[in-house]
Each structure stands twice: as structure tokens, then as C-alpha cells.
Amino acid sequence: MTDTLNRRRFLKGSALAATATAGTLAAPAVARAEPTVLKMQAAWGGGIFLENAKSYVDTVHAMAGKDLKIDLLAVDSVVKTSQMQDAVHRGVLDAAHYVPAYWYSKSKTASLFGTGPCFGWSSQEVLGWVNYGGGQELFDELMGSLGLNVVSFFNSPMPAQPLGWFKEQIKDVAQMNGLKYRTVGLAADVMLQMGLSVVQLPGGEIQPAMKSGLIDAAEFNNPTSDRDFGMQDVSKDYMLASFHQSQEFFEITFNKKKYESLPSELQAVLKHASNAENSNFYWHNTKRYAEDLVKLQTEQGVNVWRTPDSVMAAQLDAWDTVVARISEEDPFFAKVIESQKKYAKEVMGYLNLNQPDYKLAYKHYFG
């Protein structure tokens, strides 16, 4: 009886194995779909910002696997930086990695998304407003009013930008009157209000312009980029701290039609990879900025100064004038300003009460 049962089990198992083998042999080969490829142009030809753009792309690839690939192109590969948003809108490019200040000529409201007035907040809190204070919805409304076929995400909270490079230490705001100064975005309006003559130039043209005397002073963004540009070769006086661009971050823009054609999980990858860069950028870049600031001082003989409070107070007064003027001209600009003020008043009210004086602790340990 036992032998009979064993034979039955064997024969049954053999039949199942044969069926499975036959099924395997009969199954047609399924071709793996080719990955979706997005062409993204960056506003950066090299340096740490191009590294940041690559970091975003690497994060997307790690999250999306073989389903999505971003082909990252350096500055001017397809169009000029000033044309990047239009190129994404038209579908000439699928995406762009830049900052809103590079296209703010379409609408000065764009500059409020990264290079607007300081209401006592940093880039971290402005991104908080974008994500939880209605900022993203206002930006999307702005894109709709401009008729732009784009979807944008914001990331990478930048530290406050230095006042920049000068021919001498700035001790008083009167020294800045009449200087030919490079900046971009609404900062140009602020500096004009303060009596400077403003020239808007791409990053790669700043050092040659100062060397030739086209400009007297300039800012770009941070010690690492400034050192890469060779600003230490045309100036030895570097002023840190300023309210002209005290908060900024990257904008990653996608062609809306292309973005919405992607599966929902790939749309989520593009969005959440952007969110991941908020932490990665801050950790990575602040360390590099600190290291390069030390090199500028110890290896290149640069004098590093903190911008006087009197100059920064004058900047705030200039911001008040500029914001009031544009708000009167543009109701939507005023709407965004009020939204930002509401968020900043509430959030910074809490943070200012709760945060200890970190400078006090720093002095305690390091002098």
C-alpha cells in the first residue's frame, strides 16, 4: 500500500513538473520596455552647482531604476540660460535646472520664489512656505497666468549670499554709491534703489568683467563658486552677509505635458528626489563653502569682512521701497508678499523665541 501511494505521488509530481516545463518553453519572450529619457539642461557649466544638478539626477536614477533616465546637459548645450524656461515650455527641452531669478524678466513675482525680501527668515523657511504655506499653489497660479506649460519643484536651501567682492572693505553704505555692481533678480532693483549702477551678467562673465573694469564690484552666490571663478585674482576684499539675496534655492522645471504623460510613480520620483536634495544640498554645500572660505583666506590672501549692520539696514529700507512700488503696480505680486509675511510672522515668531543664541555657544568654544 505504501509503495502504491509513493508511486502515485511520484507520477503526480512528474506530471506537474512536465507541465511547468512545457509552459516555460511555450511562454513568449517579453521584451523589456526602453526607459523614458528626459533631456534636462542645467544653468551651470561646471562647479558645485553642476555637482548639485548631477546629485538630483543620480537620486532620480536610484529611485526610478531602469524606468527613467535623465540626460543632464551643461549650460548653453541647447539654448542660452535666459531661454531655458521657454525651451521647456515648448518641449525643446524636457526639463531645466536653474533659479527663478534667471527668468524673472517675465514677471518680477518670480523673484519672490527664492530671491525676495527677507522677513527674518532663511531659505529653509521660504521652502517651508512653498510646501506648507501656499507658496506652491501661488507659483502654479503664476505659471497659469503666464500661459506656461511647465511644472516646477524647488529644492536646496542656500545660505545667505555674500554682499560680494569689492576694491576695498565696505564700512559705510556711502562707499557703495555709484559703484557698477553685478547681481540678478529683484536684488538689482534693491541695489539701484541704494544708488548703485547694476549690471546683470551670467556667472562665467563676472570675473572677466571685474578684471577689465566693466564692473567695480560683484556677487554670485558662495565662497566655493567665487573661488572657482577666480574672484580672488581680481579682488582681495570679500564682504560676507547681506539682505540683497538672503534666501535662494534651485528650481527644477519640467514640460507639463511630458511630466503628466509619465506614470504616477515616476512623477512621484521626480518630486521626492527634489525633496531629498533639500537635506543633501545643505549638508554637502555648507561644508564645502566653509572649507573654501578658509582657503581664500589662508592660501589666496583674501580679506574676509562681515557687512556692517548699517549697510544691511539700508538694504531693508531699499527693499521696503521696491516692494511697495511693485505691489502697487502688480496685485499678484502684492498677494504673494502678504502670503509670505503671514507665514514668516508665525513661523519665525516661534523660532526666534525658541532658538538659543548659537553664536554665543560658538564664541564659548572657539573664541
TrEMBL record:
The residues that the entry says bind substrate are: 161, 182, 219, 245
Q: Which GO terms describe its biological process?
A: transmembrane transport
Q: Which GO terms describe its cellular component?
A: tripartite ATP-independent periplasmic transporter complex
Name the UniProt key words of this record, in alphabetical order: Metal-binding, Signal
Q: Which domain of life is it from?
A: Bacteria
Provide the leader sequence positions.
Answer: 1-33
Query: Which is an annotated GO molecular function term of this record?
Result: metal ion binding
Residues given in the record as Na(+) binding sites = 220
- The name this protein carries in UniProt is TRAP transporter substrate-binding protein
What organism is the protein native to? Roseibium aggregatum
